[in-house]
Design brief:
The protein has 172 residues and is of the alpha+beta class. 40% of the residues lie in helices and 17% in strands. The chain has a single domain, classed as NADH Oxidase. Helix 2 packs across helix 4. The chain is globular, with a radius of gyration of 16 Å.
């Protein structure tokens, strides 16, 4: 029942403390991400864990430029887990999305706040993004799926909105 409670109480957080997360805690969250189901168990995603503040800020600036803002699209979160997936696998988008879900649910289970931030696709289609992957030794035809930002919440989570009436249809 604890796992179900975790699924029902996780919320996206958009206000973070500057306090860094322990590397051991980040590693536990990442491990949960690596156990997400993937098509044919191809394990098409990779996770880029960004804890270096300068690189984090550089990626934040790329993301902000894509949406035309000068504010931090990562809401001050000190950690970015970037999920990319191998485009040669037909299930890569689904695989990467499941990894993102596991990361966010694991973070919540460990008392860490998270949020899915988009535009990883555009970042890593750019020459700058491709150059970063190459410099880090990440080779292959990867597409950015999302950023899982992590940190300690600097706000209370919002209550869940009611589920819509037509969310589920039964065919009995």
């Amino acid at each position: 029942m604890e796992a179900i409670e975790n699924l029902l109480t996780r919320r996206s957080i958009r206000q973070f403390k500057a306090e860094p997360l322990p590397k051991e805690l980040i590693a536990k969250i990442i491990e949960a991400g690596t156990y997400a189901p993937t098509g044919m168990n191809w394990q098409s995603p990779v996770i880029l864990a960004v804890t270096d503040p300068a690189l984090r800020d550089r990626i934040s600036a790329w993301n902000a430029k894509i949406i035309g803002t000068d504010t931090d699209p990562f809401y001050g979160a000190p950690v970015i887990l970037i999920v990319l997936a191998d485009k040669s696998k037909p299930t890569y988008i689904y695989d990467g999305s499941l990894v993102m879900g596991n990361l966010m649910n694991a973070a919540h289970a460990y008392g860490v706040a998270s949020c899915w931030i988009h535009r990883a696709k555009e970042e890593f289609e750019s020459e700058e993004g491709k150059a970063l992957l190459k410099a880090l030794g990440i080779e292959g035809d990867y597409e950015g799926i999302g950023h899982c930002i992590l940190g300690y919440a600097d706000c209370d989570p919002q209550p869940a909105r009611p589920r819509k009436d037509n969310y589920v249809y039964w065919a009995e």
